Amino acid sequence: MNIITTPDNTELFVKDWGSGQPVILLSGWPLSSASWEDQAMVLAEAGYRVISYDRRGFGRSSQPWNGYDYDTLSDDLAAVIQQTGVVDATLVGFSMGGGEVARYMSRHQGKSVVKTALISSVLPFMLKRSNNPDGEEQEMFNNMIEDIKADRAKFFAGFFKKFFGIGIIAQPVSDELMQWMQNIAMQASLRATIECVKSFSSTDFRDELSAFNVPTLIIHGTDDKTVPIEISSREAAQGIPQAKLIEYEGAPHGLFATDKDMLSRDLISFLKQ
Fold it and tell me: Could you tell me if 36 and 27 are in contact, meaning their C-beta atoms sit under 8 angstroms apart?
């Protein structure tokens, strides 16, 4: 089975590798399940059943006009869990995918989930408000959307440099990998790309942190310029009851590539506990 159909008849492309205790990998924006392939290989070879899927509107999934809010996205995750028949699963959400994990735990009461992991996650709330003074300005996200509308390919060329911490001297990933990520991003529909920016920037998960009623691993780079650790994972770790935070010193946002071996080791260690 490589297609799962959601309640609103959206088709999700699913990869289901290996056998054993199930692990479901949720990708970040603006990527697809392809971004998880290094970890998926290692986990499957270590004896886990690894399920990853392309978010609606991205990768090889269908591209509906609507459904990019977190309620619908968590319902999509519920459909994946139900139709793959997994029980006692670990959910691993990268960046935007952390929001889907949170909404699944609150909206679907964490059904069939025994552990969660949040990698470079957007939790708990990215947007600056009077009750969230350290968040990012709305103008920043508005400018992102305008730049995407004006020239999406050019926007992603710059975006992924910050995503992977590329600078004048620093080059933690190859030019070829950068190009691959840009190609993946361009597979998504323009509508999905923009609507997901609105969702991950404006959704407040602070009241949902208590819904994480299972052991939770949080991993974040201290030099993440895309989702700064100070406003995300350090706060999430304080609000999630059974959370353990691991900080990757000097690491950027795209840990699945820049720190892939360490990330795989930490995930396997967590799964074995």
Answer: yes
